[in-house]
Structures
1.
Amino acid sequence: MKPGKTGIARIIDATGYSLKGLKACYRGEAAFRQELLLVLVLTPLSFWVAGTVVEWILLMGPLLLLLIVELLNSAVEAAVDRIGDERHILSGRAKDMGSAAVLLSLLLIAITWLPIAWQRLQEFA
């Protein structure tokens, strides 16, 4: 077992580190701010679009996943950039893969939101 804080003190510290990471990503990553804006716009809309609790969870899950994936993508980019400025095929590949994960998360949002929203709109037609 690693030495250090345990119990509630560790949880408090971990929460602080997590909030610090969110703040750093918000300040340093334009993509994270844009995706957060998307989440903030779609979240209130999700209450109108969803007909059931299960649909609401299906709508919100991909939005949270997008933010998680963007945080991880930003972490990979920061680590790669920390290693050095020179171009390397593996560094480029790591960054491209992180970007691809974000793209797939956005695709998941579209795949989830469009059919549910379409079904909701058909109820009013």
2.
Amino acid sequence: MNEYDSNRISDLVQKIGYKKTESLESADCYILNTCHIREKATEKVYHDIGRLKKKYRNKKKPIVLITGCVAQAENDEMLKREKYIDAVVGPQSYHNIPEILKGIVKKKTKVNSTEFDVIEKFDKLNTLENSESKVSSYITIQEGCDKFCNFCVVPYTRGTEYSRSLKEIIYEAKSLVSNGTKEITLLGQNVNAYNFKHSKKSFRLSDLIRELDKIKNLKRIRYTTSHPNDMSPDLIECYKDIKKLMPFLHLPVQSGSNNILKKMNRKYTREYYLSIVNKIREVSKNIEFSSDFIIGYPGETEKDFLDTIDLIKKVNFINSYSFIYNRRPGTPAASLDSIKNDEQKKRLIIIQNLLQEIQINKNKNSVGKFKEVLVENKLKNQTKYFGRTQELTPVIFDANKEDVGKVIYVEIKKYNRNTLFGSKITSKKEAAA
């Protein structure tokens, strides 16, 4: 989502004469777009500014904006602590950036723009064409979260759930496709909670996917990140009959223990999560899953940890993210006593080794097979090309520049933990032969 936000910020500031530069040393405006999910995110901002100060020690100071969730969470505190910062801009206030920049140039005043006005934000963004021209692009369709998991800062930095109108999303999608996009990933903090109401009718994520399916030159549809409680029957049904919807789902579970899920306020059980996985597999036999795991959450016992191991083995996640729990200020879990760091690290290593083993075996089993790959680009300083399978696995392979933007068949010849390697074949008939 930050990548999408950064692209839209670029579209906004271009209207007042700014252009992106690859040269940090020659920039006269520096925008650091931040995420507050990970530990020490705030300190990383100050480290980056420290490096910036050194580069501009004998030059005119650039305008410095801190945007995103760290700006939302820290706001005035950042302006007080670091005088080099000219403005903090929360994720719902991006539309104000052009006027903020004009004001800084004119008045030389510090700015705190961290209001929650998501409607005004998207109204402004809807007046700008999305200039993204990549083969695979993002569209934010939903922001905020009403789930209030005890460990999560998102409701406090992104606000309550808000869904953009179906019409404006389809317009943006068509614009991207006309720019050359072949794959669209729909984004949201809680993307499958998408629910836009118009004329007494509600449009859900399934309705949006079916509308996107009608766009002629769009080849692939994905969405992330989902909450298990919002995997509704109509959304699951999409996997049965919409070929453009890729057979891959990132579905964070966080823990395989009912005890810990309750402490986290996740509002589902491991049994419910597994039932959702099974329902999706009933309609999409080849679907693969990835997930998120928080290891060493306050109160996690050895049994809780083993329950997570058991769930991982039951689902066989193709790719997952796992992290030691770190407290986020302002969340209910921040006041809880953490388990010993040594124990957290030990459990994390066990989990990551298991997830890695599953992932390597999945990749190993791909050798000798023919995978449909969307060709995204040629690798820098190489003759090879890059793309992804339907299951989102990266592939590096031999191809031609004419293949960029096409779905081709690649014979998989080698693998490592994260990536497959192969060569283009000319047709499905060749693969069958």
3.
Amino acid sequence: MKKASKRYQVILKTAIKDKKVGVKDILELVKKNSTTKFDESIDVSLKINLKQSKGGDFNLRTVVNLPNGSGKKNKVAVLCESDKTEEAKKAGADVVGSDDLIEKIAAGKFDFTKLICTPAMMSKIGKHGKVLGPKGLMPNPKLGTVSTDIKKAVKDIKTGLVEIRNDKDGNLGSSIGRKSFSTEKLLENYNHFIESVKKEKPDTIKGEFVKNIFLTSTMGISFKVGAK
């Protein structure tokens, strides 16, 4: 069995058992435990209730616009009509194209992490859904990646729009910032994220929607959120 590193053994000593701790205190602990040289991601993980009183299990897939951004740097591609490519470049897109970009996608050349598409180009990109879908790159109006407002779509993704979706067991998670963020900014992002998820609760689900919440960093340990 591989022995835990000295750094990890030190972090383990900060673990909290059988004690409720407020979000702000946990965020400060998570930041303190982020002792690696890189700017670790601060992540929130939730367990939500999927059981509806009627019908099948509920599935949540949406976007949350974090007020202070996520700190993640996305390489954004815009697929648009040829007469809108200049607009996309001015909006700050890293990759811009029309039919030429579709050819690259068809050839499996994905040098971007997010793909924005104008409505007029959706019919052309649709047949590549089997390739784009598994990579999480298929444009979707509900996720802000199909839009006529190219400038806003690029800005949202560049500044703090994060996509969330649950797995079959009701788990979902997201980054809410980086260890370089102040505790106050992380707390603001956290509260906004949790409230946004709670607003997605359908009327067909009874009782608590969010069952458990955990906070951690990329290389840290997980803390269960108790009372605020």
4.
Amino acid sequence: MPETFSYSARTAEGEKRSGTVQAENPERVAAILEEMRLIPIEIKPQKKDIRPVLFGFLRSRQYEDLILFTRNLSTLYKAGIPLLRALDTIKIGPANGYFNRTIERIRTDVQSGRSLSDAMGEHPELFSKIYIASIAAGEASGKLDEILDSLGYMLERDLDLNRQIKSALRYPIIVVCAIILAFAVLITFVIPRFIDFYSSMGAQLPAPTRIIIWVHHIVTTYWVAVVAILIAAALTLRKIYASSSGKLYFDTWFLSLPVFGDLIVKGNIARFSYMFHLLLKSGLPMVKSLELLSETVKNARLTEEIKVLSSSFKEGRELDGIKSRLQYFPEMGLQMIRIGLESGSIDSMLSEVALHYNKEVDYKSRHLASLVEPILTVVLGFFVLIVALAIFLPMWNLAQIFRG
């Protein structure tokens, strides 16, 4: 199976180039670079990104540039401008920026006789498998202009979904960060001021106060060990998540989260339906489309369920018979796909499914603050209660001592 290698190289004129290439081994990468008339300096396997991803949306820093590139290429191609000239015309961002250098390499490959999809396949950090498969299908069917237009639309909707969810998460994240900051200030500045005072009075400190004093002692005395434990825990969790079983466990746990789990599922199903619609419109067979989609969905549990869906199509089984094996795939979405298959309008039905769940995500993301507010209220209330008991109970004990 091809791996992704990053490389540094120089042209015959001495100009430095860098990028990524998919190949079976470093020797094959060197051969590809030689075909591109580049002298390799360094070739190394690219590290896989194993950070937990809740929603599974594309997160490339060049995402907006990709949308702009796709829209520009679609406009120029539909206007009848030859592909090579169109690639030469399009400029995204800084003239010598990474994206423009990539476009230039794609143009060089196309000029040397390679197809556009093959040339894009050399840059998986920018063009996903679904993007490349759609372009290849568009080239084969002669509908590249329609496919580019659909790709631009899909990427824009995907970006909108991502932005909606990020915006919705902002409030809960701010509240949690405020609680953590308040606790840090309490431990660092407040606790040291009244520890000696209460101790000198001979008052019996209540349990909440003793717990906070104990935490203060651990953090201030053994802070190096605390930091080391936190780093070790983070690295351990990262390693567990990198394994297939660990990723499946955590991704299943993400889906079981209150409020957020439903948002994750519906966001992924909306994206799945958009991409499924696009691949079928491109002319790809249904089973091949599902195989591609299972490779691009980032949530491992949903990936497993899409594979179940794919196997049912391969074996010609009824979709109603697999409902018990789909714990998170929405039943409504499954029924709409079944109706689309029976009526021969699967393409338009997938578009309806995507539109429906996109509206669901939009509604829930807009009202996420009110949905999460009860949970945050309980967490914040518990924190305030502990702090209040830790500070005011010793004062009550001191009052009793003074009265005595």
